[in-house]
């Protein structure tokens, strides 16, 4: 579960295959704490007061002290033991959190640009929001960022806790 200040981190964690609850700015601190308790989720927050309150209420919480995505991913990897790789067969929609389903090009051809249909072979569709994903040019940047963070995590070897 992430607070409203960690929307980008939320999308990345979902791509990594993690079921992440994100209320955005709609949820109050009490809502986040209640849901984290009910669903046995770890609360990730940039709000130090929320972090302290969550701990007092018995919620496992991690205070994210950086506004930089790479640092946030590193902190979550060190504190929560997440894997920094995208499982091609078990990823989630970064928008709605629904599990993604691999599909054939024929299943999504009407939903993708012609150029993508000509250059890509692997596709995923979200049965929740209907969004279609594929390995495009941005994939190289995503993978490079994850590799950089993973190298830092392996070199760090200690927790932020």
Kindly describe this structure.
This protein has 161 residues and is mostly helical. The protein has 2 domains: 101 residues, no CATH class; 35 residues, no CATH class. It has 7 helices and 5 strands, in the order ααβαβαβααββα. The strands form 2 sheets. A 3-stranded antiparallel beta sheet has the order 3-4-5. Strand 4 and strand 5 form a beta hairpin. Helix 4 packs across helix 7. The radius of gyration is 17 Å and the shape is globular. The two termini are 18 Å apart. The relative contact order is 0.15. The model has no long low-confidence stretch (mean pLDDT 93).
In short:
This protein has 161 residues and is mainly alpha-helical.
Topology:
Blueprint: H1 7-15, H2 29-39, E1 43-45, H3 48-56, E2 61-63, H4 69-80, E3 100-103, H5 105-108, H6 114-119, E4 123-126, E5 132-134, H7 137-156
Parallel strand pairs: 1-2
Antiparallel strand pairs: 3-4, 4-5
Helix pairs in contact: 4-7
Write out key terms for the chains shown.
mainly alpha; two-stranded parallel ribbon; 11% strand; globular
Low confidence ranges: none
Sheet-strand content, in percent, reads 5-15%
Bin the helical content.
40-55%
In terms of quaternary structure, the protein is single chain
Mean pLDDT: 93
Largest sheet: 3 strands, antiparallel
Shape: globular
**Major sheet strand order:** 3-4-5
Q: Quickly give the structural class.
A: mainly alpha
Tally of discrete structural domains: 2
Strands, total number: 5
The first-to-last residue Cα distance is 18 Å
* Discrete helix count: 7
